[in-house]
Write the structure tokens for this entry.
Amino acid sequence: MELQQLRCFVAVADHGSFTRAAQALVLSQPTLSQSVGKLEAEFGTELFQRTSRGAALTSAGEILLEPARKVLESVGHTQAAVDAIHGLTTGSVTVVTFKAFTTQAAAAMSVFANKFPTVTLRVLAPQNDDGVFDAVSSGKADIGFARDIELLGAGLKIHRITIEESAALVPKDSVLGASTEPITVTELTRLPMIVGPPGSLVRTAVEKLFADNGSRFEVAAECDHHETSIQLVRGGVGAYLSTRGGLPPHIDEMVTVRRLEPHREWPMGIVHRIEHVTPAAVAFTSVALEHFSKAVR
């Protein structure tokens, strides 16, 4: 089945005549008739009752008409989005990132900004996963980077872009800071933890991690800011769970980074609304997906 066959079919249905449909599509009547004939052959039934006065839909044609319109409409929207990306010269896109994914997200933003220098790029303060989802859902942000977990609410779509590996950050001069070997959850109980506020997705994830291991942790500090949490580790306050990709390029010498054992991975994704997506947001999503697909090769 070809799109041109559907276009010819819908045109004949709308105009009630092969002649008028051919004129509307700027096609010769034999060409249009051939396209409709091929479509009928594929379905194994006639779609029109041909008479001297024109063409009327058969029962099979009536069943096909609405789905055919939806296919053509969807193709039209897709083409408009592609055209918007290639010809994008104005507009803006607002991005919010998960607090431990700012470095990777910034790399994708840089690619977009260089490709579309006339589009305004706005970056909101980093959030927890739930904050990212809320910002995108409410329209405060067009695009979000968050962990690929169950979405908090309808109307959002997430595209997986990469996998992040969990890591434990411990003070260098602590009982766990001398080694860089993988560390278990049981070993982590020897230090108090720097965690997010109660009820946050990050805090809940840490609580579940320890509970699944049959362990409990002592809270050293509740902090909702990634960079500050790392500084608290540097100051000897406690241990902090993050992802390797979310760490600064050059970690402080007073902080030891140890891989969590058993191995723990977090799928990361780019989030946008399903409806009311601007051309700039479509372009950003396309650029980001391409960027991360190259990064993981």
Remarks:
- Residues 164-266 form a domain with the D-Maltodextrin-Binding Protein; domain 2 fold (CATH 3.40.190.10).
- Residues 212 and 218 are 16 Å apart (CA to CA).
- The chain has three domains: 3-86, 92-162+268-295, 164-266.
